[in-house]
Amino acid sequence: MIFSIRKYVVHNNVYFLKRSFFYSVILNANNQESVTSQFNDETKLHEKNKKLLNVAILGLPNAGKSTLINKLIHRSVCPTSSKVHTTLHKAKAIYTEGDTQIVFIDTPGLVNSHEIKKYELSKTFKKDPETAVNEADIIGIIQDVTNIYTRHKIDNFILDYINNKREDTQLLMIFNKVDKLKKKESLLNLTRMIINNKNYPKFNDIFMVSALTGDGVNDLRNYLLDSSKIKDWKYEEEYYTDQQIETITEQTVRAKLLDILPHDMPYKVKIEIEHFTIGDDGTINAYVTLNCPKQRFVKSLLKAKAAKIKCLSYYVEKELRHAFRTTVIVRINVCTKTNSIKL
Prior knowledge:
Structural class: alpha/beta
């Protein structure tokens, strides 16, 4: 009887989440697998002719990896900003169309060992790309065509990641931000330089896209759908990511804070989700605290009648509505060791 009650409660909680988010429920991978096992939903994942493809997206910091993934799945589940190191750890974004499921693996920007040590970056900056490469059926290398210093070459430490891929893993070159190039013929020159370099691996295909405007993204998505293989799905159709709701909320606040605060300020602000609720109508209410290490950070955020905080709340709510497909209300508290200001 106790087991039956417990099972009933879990089932209703899952149903509530699905109903609230209009079939965009977000749980971590372990929870998904356990819930699926409890309620015998495995048949949905193991039906005949199901297709699956694991795609790892790699590239230098700020090349547009997360933006591209969001555009590919039509949801903003991977937080983005204009500054480097927005993505701190790998996350999966799931796109399901018809009988095909594509699992995109978003990764931190690729940096060499010296940079990891110099800037005291997390171990995930090295470990997560390695894991993604091992899991991937297709690896997409993103090159930012607006970066004149890196667009024409692939650094050795990036090649080290690629060389560790499985033999059957396909490799794609994805030139991003093509909308910002005035001279389109430079794309052909870049393509020749990449293809004709004997030190680089052979790419199965090359795509030219703008993750921001969506130009060329449909062609890439269709290519991936056509490349999928008959295999059991990893997730049920309504899932869009393996991240928890609170994690996406926290990381979205962090990403938008990177756009609002100058220089290294946003990297030093600690973000905490103090309160998080989901209403009966699916509305999300989040109470977030920004713990600032210095008083001047607070002054920067609160000057001009807290214009930056109001702007932060607006863009965070907008991004999360696009991710969760429901109303999102975010309240922000700014504090230091000496004071706390609620907004």
